[in-house]
């Protein structure tokens, strides 16, 4: 029995209606869609992590190694324990909260922030092991479960268009159409997006990979031929003089000992109230981001049962719990399941073999980070726009004639992109559902746990928006 046959048997690939080649393509697709975190996360966290005797760039390289290690550990748990095709890595949004709110804004030492992440991870492992996380997620109202996929789709679409500069911020209207005619990067992104859509519409396997790679190659060719300036290259490779600089990805700092177990020092002399609030915020956002992503991507992949639940959800939940705990040990922020996993599901990924491929590719990037750095944002974010549009099919599962469904689902879908948070969208749907149900005389249809969850969320948002966190 060859390696391929062994893997197929272990992961039950055939039983899930897939095959090894499809799972490999799906894994590569997911990796390409989420690989940007390998560069983005270090630059965000390095703004907050200062280590005596080490330069900013050396800290960036250290955090990059920690990012990869935490991701690989979490993904391996997802692959071998949960057998689901989902990728994990330090979460966007949570890393921003870690760096700019907790460390820079509140003045909390970065070691203490890592300690908060570690405590959150331990709590997650404990409540996942006893089934508490699965119980809470099963309390999610049905309209929230069935609409979260569409909400994530719009969120992905919005992020992708912004990162590709097809849509840009505007002081008067919040956002507006970018300068496509004069911005070479946006124009290349638009071309790559259309190319990918054409390939996808034609049913070409690996269409998203082909679109990303083709757009990257064309971008570099336009620069090298002099047609376009350095604006078409990844910002990390452009020096202050506008020329190429590979300092960011050369001479890597593989010694991450200054980050290892630094969280232990952060447990000393902490303010109990502030520390508790920070832990709770990490806990809340990670809990609902992960739950929303798992449900949304699972809906997209046809993994949910007739009640909108993901069977054995405690297993994939354990993956992000373990990843978060290990991540804190190696110097990175909270690890979560990535919405970009939907790109691999779209390519046919159905088992942990897809996740295993993602994990192996993350590990390889320890040596190949320079190649990842050569992919410009306008190319890598093509995947988000394509999958975002595909995921909009989730709106068909919502009963828009039922007021409680319409309000809860509508808020879930719209609040996500408008507040740039999956968690906020979920919370809006959860809080509104029992209220509208009661208003329509269907009070008995609401479970006690759903009322409790709504009240807890109201309390949380009062604390969060009152300025108590700084």
Quick recap of the structure?
The chain has about 475 residues and is mainly α. It is built from 20 helices and 4 strands.
Task: Summarize the structure in words.
The structure is a single chain. This protein has one domain (3-465). 64% of the residues lie in helices and 3% in strands. It contains 20 helices and four strands. It has a two-stranded antiparallel sheet. Helix 4 (56-82) runs antiparallel to helix 13. The longest helix is centred in the middle third of the chain and has 30 residues, at 272-301. The model has no long low-confidence stretch (mean pLDDT 87).
Please describe the structure with a list of short key phrases separated by commas or semicolons.
mainly alpha; 20 helices; 470 residues; globular; two-stranded antiparallel ribbon; two-stranded antiparallel sheet
SSE inventory with pairings:
Blueprint: H1 3-11, H2 20-34, H3 37-46, H4 56-82, E1 88-90, H5 94-105, H6 110-129, H7 132-138, H8 142-163, E2 167-170, E3 174-177, H9 184-201, H10 207-224, H11 263-266, H12 272-301, H13 314-330, E4 335-337, H14 341-346, H15 352-373, H16 377-380, H17 382-390, H18 403-419, H19 422-439, H20 448-465
User: How many whole angstroms does the radius of gyration measure?
Assistant: 22 Å
- Percent in strands: under 5%
Number of helices in the DSSP assignment: 20
Q: How many structural domains does the protein architecture include?
A: 1
The number of E-state strands comes to 4
Shape: globular
Query: Which structural class is indicated by helix and strand composition?
Result: mainly alpha
Largest sheet: 2 strands, antiparallel
The overall pLDDT, averaged over residues, is 87
Helicity range of the residues? 55-70%
pLDDT < 50 stretches = none
Spatial sequence of strands, sheet with the most strands: 1-4
For the record, give the distance between the C-alpha atoms at the N and C termini, rounded to a whole number.
Answer: 59 Å
Q: What's the order of the H and E elements?
A: HHHHEHHHHEEHHHHHEHHHHHHH
């Amino acid at each position: 029995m060859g390696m391929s046959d062994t893997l197929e048997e272990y992961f039950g690939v055939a039983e899930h209606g897939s095959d090894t080649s499809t799972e490999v393509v799906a894994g590569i697709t997911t990796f390409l869609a989420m690989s940007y975190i390998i560069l983005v996360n270090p630059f965000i966290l390095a703004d907050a992590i200062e280590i005596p005797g080490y330069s900013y760039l050396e800290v960036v390289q250290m955090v990059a190694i920690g990012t990869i290690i935490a991701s690989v550990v979490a993904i391996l748990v997802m692959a071998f324990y949960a057998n689901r095709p989902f990728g994990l890595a330090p979460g966007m949004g949570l890393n921003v909260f870690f760096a700019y709110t907790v460390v820079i804004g509140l003045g909390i030492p970065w070691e203490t922030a890592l300690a908060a992440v570690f405590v959150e991870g331990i709590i997650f492992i404990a409540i996942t092991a006893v089934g508490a996380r699965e119980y809470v997620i099963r309390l999610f109202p049905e309209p929230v479960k069935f609409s979260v996929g569409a909400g994530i789709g719009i969120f992905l679409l919005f992020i992708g268009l912004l990162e590709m500069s097809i849509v840009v911020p505007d002081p008067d209207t919040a956002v507006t159409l970018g300068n496509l005619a004069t911005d070479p990067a946006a124009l290349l992104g638009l071309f790559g997006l259309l190319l990918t859509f054409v390939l996808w519409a034609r049913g070409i396997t690996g269409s998203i990979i082909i679109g990303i790679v083709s757009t990257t190659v064309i971008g570099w060719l336009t620069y090298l031929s002099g047609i376009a300036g350095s604006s078409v290259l990844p910002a990390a490779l452009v020096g202050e003089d506008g020329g190429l600089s590979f300092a960011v990805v050369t001479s890597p700092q593989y010694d991450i000992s200054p980050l290892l177990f630094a969280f232990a020092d952060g447990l000393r002399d902490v303010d109990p109230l502030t520390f508790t609030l920070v832990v709770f915020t990490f806990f809340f956002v990670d809990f609902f981001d992960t739950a929303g992503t798992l449900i949304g991507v699972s809906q997209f992949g046809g993994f949910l049962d007739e009640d909108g639940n993901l069977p054995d959800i405690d297993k994939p939940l354990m993956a992000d719990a373990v990843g978060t705990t290990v991540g804190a040990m190696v110097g990175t922020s909270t690890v979560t399941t990535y919405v970009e996993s939907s790109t691999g599901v779209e390519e046919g990924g159905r088992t942990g073999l897809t996740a295993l491929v993602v994990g192996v590719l993350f590990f390889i990037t320890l040596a190949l980070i320079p190649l990842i750095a050569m992919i410009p944002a306008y190319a890598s974010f093509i995947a988000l726009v394509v999958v975002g549009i595909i995921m909009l099919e989730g709106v068909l599962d919502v009963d828009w004639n039922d007021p409680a469904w319409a309000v809860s689902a509508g808020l879930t879908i719209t609040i996500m992109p408008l507040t740039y948070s999956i968690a906020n969208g979920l919370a809006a749907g959860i809080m509104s559902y029992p209220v509208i149900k009661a208003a329509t005389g269907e009070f008995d249809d609401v479970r006690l746990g759903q009322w409790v969850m709504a009240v807890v969320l109201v309390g949380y948002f009062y604390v969060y928006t009152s300025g108590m966190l700084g």
